[in-house]
TrEMBL record:
This protein's name: HTH-type transcriptional regulatory protein TyrR
The keyword Membrane is assigned to this record: no
Stored InterPro entries: AAA+_ATPase (IPR003593), AAA_lid_NorR (IPR058031), Homeodomain-like_sf (IPR009057), HTH_TyrR (IPR030828), P-loop_NTPase (IPR027417), PAS (IPR000014), PAS-like_dom_sf (IPR035965), PAS_fold (IPR013767)
Record key words, sorted: Aromatic hydrocarbons catabolism, ATP-binding, Coiled coil, DNA-binding, Nucleotide-binding, Transcription, Transcription regulation
Domain PAS: 15-63
GO biological process: regulation of DNA-templated transcription
Coiled-coil residue windows: 117-151
NCBIfam families xrefs: sensory_box
Presence of keyword Secreted: no
Ranges of residues in domain Sigma-54 factor interaction: 157-386
Length: 463
């Protein structure tokens, strides 16, 4: 019997040691008081989290600690009164704010102990900040990935004309610098292609190339897209906030297309970013250092806009460090035929169909004035390539406005002239009619005949 009691005592002692070790190994603060709310035990984590010592707490009641200002509000008093688990934020004399949870422990249906756990709010806030940073990085990476999917690698620019050769000779010098570049020229002249070439040949060529069309996004939305925002910055803002495109362009290039459309309010904010290389998200007071290459493009007369007060003079001089003017296609006709051949080869590869272009077509396209510049020329070539059934693109396959522009007695046969004029008449009549049947009636032909001619000339008829 004596041996049995000794074994029990030994086992109880080992259990106590094990429990003591477990309490002190816990990273959360543990504070235990008896039914009279007197502190009987605490672990080292509790003193670390609260900034208090054992001498200040052991043997003292929660009422005393609250009264002498050691703690702001005694959770144990509330637990004993309400007989339930209670959580609150407690402020300690050390100045620390701690999240505490008091849990009652009963023995024979009577309150025996109250166990209080303490969590350092500064540690929780640090973890929350780390989580927010991780989520922000994730959001940034996902957005960059989305932008990279849309990113089309610029191809070598066609430059047979003296003007384009001169521009290409400037690119190595421009790429080495990190100064702002301003690309000037009519719509469709290839400003974005040149901007990508500058970016890709620069030291940051592997970093993001972020394009923003300033004329396609409403002012308020453009502001949040460019500068980003924090949680609660405006109605409908994401709970996680969002990095702006300026931040996403870090170490890369920010391409502001149609910069002349930038509202005056945003011109001021952009100027501040370019002066300090710091960006502040909407709804935040904290600025963040940024590093990026600015490339702007416009087809508008910025100097005239400055005189009218539509564009800030200080911003103009800030972005006009390295200006490059791209001439319209009609002023560099030497580039037209090489571009047509290059585009046709690309389309043949894409569609797996080899097509050639007749000399007459090349002559017409070279002499056309191209108000829409490269963009219009590329669209015409692609449309003609797709709609032509034969392996050779001839005059009759060209859009009527371009072909009719060059119908002359010196160049074409009577048959070709008649085909061009016939197609032009059909297209005009279809535009004036609500249906193919109505157009056929006005032209005095059967609907089946008109359908056949539309197919012949590659005219799309909307049902």
């Amino acid at each position: 019997m004596i041996e049995t009691e000794q074994i029990k005592h030994h086992n109880n002692f080992e259990d106590c040691l094990e429990l003591e070790a477990a309490i002190h190994a816990c990273q959360e603060g543990i504070y235990i008081c008896d039914a009279d709310l007197r502190c009987v035990r605490l672990n080292s984590a509790y003193t670390r989290i609260t900034g208090l010592t054992e001498d200040e707490l052991i043997g003292k009641t929660s009422i005393e600690l609250e009264k002498n200002g050691t703690i702001s509000k005694a959770v144990a008093v509330i637990v004993k009164r309400d007989r339930k688990v209670v959580s609150l934020i407690q402020k300690f004399r050390s100045g620390k704010n701690v999240l505490v949870t008091g849990t009652p422990v009963y023995k024979d249906r009577k309150l025996f102990r109250i166990v209080i756990t303490a969590r350092d709010l500064s540690e929780l806030n640090q973890l929350e900040n780390q989580l927010n940073d991780a989520e922000e990085r994730s959001e940034r990476y996902l957005r960059e990935l989305s932008l990279y999917k849309e990113h089309i690698k610029s191809e070598k620019i066609v430059a047979n004309s003296p003007q384009m050769k001169q521009i290409l000779n400037l690119i190595p010098k421009v790429s080495k610098a990190d100064s702002p570049v301003l690309l000037l020229g009519e719509s469709g002249t290839g400003k974005e292609v040149l901007a990508r070439l500058i970016h890709e040949t620069s030291s940051g060529g592997d970093s993001p190339f972020i394009k923003v069309n300033c004329g396609a996004i409403p002012g308020d939305l453009l502001e949040s897209e460019l500068f980003g925002y924090v949680k609660g910055a405006f109605t409908g803002a994401s709970d996680k906030g969002k990095p702006g495109l300026i931040e996403i362009a870090e170490n890369g290039s920010l391409f502001l297309d149609e910069v002349g459309e930038l509202p005056l309010k945003l011109q001021v904010k952009l100027l501040r970013v370019l002066q300090d290389f710091e960006v502040t998200r909407l709804g935040s007071t904290k600025s963040k250092k940024v590093s990026f290459r600015l490339i702007c493009a416009t087809n508008r007369p910025l100097k005239e806009m400055m005189e009218k007060g539509e564009f800030r003079e200080d911003l103009f001089y800030r972005i006009n460090v390295l200006p490059i003017t791209i001439p319209p296609l009609r002023e560099r006709k030497e580039d037209i035929i090489p571009f047509i051949i290059k585009t046709t080869e690309k389309l043949s590869s894409r569609y797996g169909t080899l097509k050639t272009i007749s000399p007459d077509v090349l002559k017409i396209l070279e002499s056309y004035h191209w108000p829409g510049n490269i963009r219009e020329l590329e669209n015409v070539i692609e449309r003609t390539f797709i709609m032509t059934d034969e392996n050779s693109i001839t005059v009759k396959d060209l859009p009527s406005n371009i072909a009719a522009d060059k119908v002359s007695k010196d160049t074409y046969t009577l048959k070709e002239k008649m085909q061009i004029i016939e197609r032009d008449i059909i297209e005009d009549m279809l535009k004036q009619s609500s249906s193919l049947r109505e157009a056929a009636k006005k032209l005095g032909v059967d609907a089946s005949t008109l359908t056949r001619k539309c197919q012949k000339y590659g005219i799309f008829v909307q049902n």
